[in-house]
Structure formats: C-alpha cells, structure tokens
Write a structure and sequence with these properties.
The chain has one domain. The protein is 80% helix and 0% strand. It has helices at residues 2-22, 29-46, 57-84, 86-95, 98-107, 114-130, 136-162, 168-189, 195-221, 224-245, 253-270. The protein starts with a helix and ends in a 5-residue tail after the last helix.
Amino acid sequence: MISLFLSIIMSVAIANLLPYFKKDKKIKILHVFLGNYFLASIFSFIDKGSPLAEAGNFEIFTGSLTGILFFATFLIYQHNISKNGVSLSVGAMRFSVVIPIIMALLIFGEPVFLLNVIGIILVLLAFTFLMDTKSFHSIFWLGLLFLGTGIADSIMKLYEQYGLESTRPFMIYIFGSAMIFNLLVVLIKKTPFHLKSFCFGMILGIPNRLTTKYFLDALQEIPASVVYPMFAASVVVLGILSDVLIWKKRFNAKQWIALTIMVVGIALLYIRIGI
C-alpha cells in the first residue's frame, strides 16, 4: 500500500511542479523536459532487469513510439494545466483509460462491464458540466491530451501482452527516444541551452520515473482491481485539492458536484467486476 501511496504522490507532484516552474518567465519548457528525460533515462539504464541486447524490433518500435508520445503529451499536458487547471487536466488524462479498454475489448476480447459503461457516462457528464463549451480552444487541447495519453497507455498494454517480462529495455527506449526527440526539437528551434531549466527538468525527472516504479511495485503487492481505481481516483482528488489549496482556484457548487461525479466515474472505469 505504501508503494501505491508514493506513486499517487509522485504523479500529483508532477502536475504541480509544471505550473510552479512556469511561474519563472525565463524558464524554457523544452529544456525542462530535456532535463526530465535525461534523468529518467539514467534511472532506467541503471535499473535492474533484462539487458538491452535482449530487446527485439517489437521492443524498439513500441518503446520509441511511446517515448515520442510521452514527449508530445507532456507538452500538451503543461499547456492544459495553464489553460484548464490541474484538476481538469488530470481528469482528462485518467479518463483516457477508455482507449485501452476499447482496445482490450477489440483485440484481446476482454469484457467491458456495466460499471465501466456507467463510469464512462458519468465522466462525460462531469466534463460537460465543467468545460466551457463556448471555448473550442479548451476542448481541443483536452481532447489532444485524452488521445495522446490513451494511445500511449494502449501501446504499454500491448507491450504487457507481447513484450519481454522485464520492462527495463522498454523503459530505456521510452525515455531515451523521448530525450532524443526533445533534443531534436530544441536544435530545430535553435533554442540556446538554459541550465536553470535543465536543472528544473532533472528535478521533474525524479517523480516522473518514481511514479512508474512505485506503480509497478504496487501491482506486485496489491491486486490490480484495487490499484487502478485507487490510483486514478486519488490522483484526481488530489489534483482538485491542489487547485484549491495551492493555486487558489475557486469552484462553485455546480463544479464541485461535477468533480465529485468525475471522481466516481473514473474509479468505475477501472473496476473489472461484472454486475
């Protein structure tokens, strides 16, 4: 249970570090991400597991594609936090589990239970209440975050089914490719190296890597049917508290009701029990 708690805390820390770093107008977000992926790559390389030589074309392709999606989604995520707040951005990321659920249904023949369908309906209702439907900009970026996170999670689901038992090569390719792609964007944009941003990024890389590590540890200690809904719902709840306590965002009664519905709906998405 401690591993699950630490994974939740690390995930929420990422959501709050991004807007905190961006309070400094001189910060270069691309260099923040570069430092993040640099440190995460080192963590992955020194981790225990299968040697990199055991990775085949499947591991290389899925890991590299996931890494590129990680980088692109990270950019979209920080933009969403700036525009839509922590709670709504985190909610969109957690709701993206719908995509791997649909993939599991179509490819692996896994069942989608009534509770999952109820969860989807509840979250959609919550987003309808929370979003400013007049703002296409807001809906567009939340949609990109939803798709990017969902596709990345789906690829990791594929790796779980068909990849190596050890995740070490996969993680090396994920963070290594994200770092390389990040560096290419920096070079193309000809952005001067900013040491402070890079150091901030290495700070971000610590919770980024530990979130995955602790989450995988939790899955070994606790049934997945408990880990997934607790993680998803807890991250959304703490995201809401972060908005209120740290960023001084104020929600009206309608928004509080919608956020409560969202938390319940997201928890139901992960429950794999038929009724």
